[in-house]
Amino acid sequence: MGSLKIENVKKAFGPVEVLKGINLEVTDGEFVVFVGPSGCGKSTLLRVIAGLEDSTSGRVVIDGQDVSVTPPAKRGIAMVFQTYALYPHLTVKNNMGLGLKQAGTPAAEIDRRIGIASSMLSLEPYLERRPAELSGGQRQRVAIGRAVVREPKLFLFDEPLSNLDAALRVNTRLEIAQLHRRLKATMIYVTHDQVEAMTLADKIVVLNAGRIEQIGGPMELYNSPANEFVAGFIGSPKMNFIDGARLGETAKTIGVRPEHLTVDPKSGSWKGTVVHAEHLGADTNLYLDCEKAGLITVRIFGVYDAEPGATLYATPDPARTYRFGADGKTIK
Amino acid sequence: MSTATRSLPRTIGAHAILLTYTAIALFPVILVIMNSFKSRAGIFGAPLTPPTPKTFDLIGYTTVIGQGDFIHYFQNSLVVTVASLFFVLLFGAMAAFALSEYRFRGNSLMGLYLALGIMIPIRLGTVAILQLMVASGLVNTLTALILVYTAQGLPLAVFILSEFMKQVSDDLKNAGRIDGLSEYTIFFRLVLPLVRPSMATVAVFTMIPIWNDLWFPLILAPSEETKTVTLGAQLFLGQFVTNWNAILAALSLAIMPVLILYVIFSRQLIRGITSGAVK
Ligand SMILES: Nc1ncnc2c1ncn2[C@@H]1O[C@H](COP(=O)(O)OP(=O)(O)OP(=O)(O)O)[C@@H](O)[C@H]1O
Ligand SMILES: [Mg+2]
To answer: How is this protein positioned relative to the membrane (chain B) (predicted)?
Structure first.
């Protein structure tokens, strides 16, 4: 009851092509996350799915029905925005109920659904308040509630947590995960945040400059990135990229994740000096300037004492080293 | 407020400057109102003193109310101003919404065309307007004035309002679209309330020139039936004798309605002018 198919969707604003042919299939009940650098077209793609923006070419199919020319309200979707976008003149209750009221749903049914949604999101004490009288976290929960009461085939989230502070973000993230489990609804979620993407997604879509770079589960993207871009985008701190020629390799670029390097004060593959050390408690990030490999990041689990200027040897795990060709693609 | 800006000499200085400015700005108005309550001899004998029991005289007001159909002129002015204001705000806001919200071919050209009217005074077209009104039989009707003033006020209204409408959150409008609101509902229920302060700003800037205008009432609607207050006050301005009592009384009365409208809008106006400056 909530599948989505996007066929060769292109979108241009005047001469600028923002989406350059997107193909994607989402099955019922899936949680799909769009990630990508700022300006790559994530929001634009989401707005095309919602019908807020017409695609220049291509088709959007929801539940087997071509909705390319259907207005947003008739597509069976609900959207949660980064800026909450609550109606300032309506109470929480009316904010949640407006869409149903417009669709002509009986008042009793509206009340029932608002009741369920507000208990799910612990919004009962605030039903009679206006958005201005709520905190940021409460507002975003109302926005989510407004989406829930519509019982849509497809939930669309555009960076819903990026206006919240760190602690609240974690809580609301949990709430969204629980919501997905309870409703078993199809959700599409746009974010900048790696952690959100990795923790929430069944499937991650990595976008770059209007193209899909790779689609896959979080671990699939982490373990076998299709190309250099995905390898660099997924994982934090970022993967180290080393010029293959400097290491005497045939591949154009060699990639090693910071957590797949070990250090030793006496011996190892790459000799380097510590430039900077970040102590995070649970792990330590070392920045090493190596003779052979250049500036690299090493992530060590637990506490590791290293003074800037000290000499260390870094050794990559050979089984978890990635090789990329001149076209950026991973060499298997 | 930080304590640094509260030092005593600064406060006194700032207040002195503001009070001086207020006094200068209010002086003519107070002079008019003061003298409107005096006898003719009082006005000429000591124009700068407030009315004393000796010089106090309501002759101006009795003349105004007795002679000519002043209440009627007032009505005309009010009808013309309020109706023009309504149309300027309605059509101005709608045009501004279309320009700021929809991408269509020639959008920016259309915006420029609509804004052109700010730079070209409508009075340059007086002859053509008069011919138009004669041809359509609208001479000596209030409709003629309302049409002209609506045209006169629209360019500035579109220009200012479209700037403000661009700032209204896209997400909010999109949320409305997803909830199935029509574009009209989005405009009237979501966008208009959010740009209310700028509407008030536009209202005040539009209203005052209309209320004070003498040119178009004189040319398009000089009949007894359609005279406005400003035109009516000319009655007392003779080539040889001028009835100063009556003129001053008429002017004092003419200030009142604008003042009332201004007070209604001013709370919003201050927010409109300072919005953006302070969050
Ligand atoms: N209405 C528009 N007119 C012209 N260009 C636009 C318009 N909307 C978006 N763009 C352009 O399209 C590109 C993609 O925008 P989009 O908002 O989809 O990016 P995004 O991936 O969501 O970025 P972010 O992560 O910063 O939100 C950007 O380069 C942007 O400048
Ligand atoms: Mg975005």
So the answer is: Multi-pass membrane protein
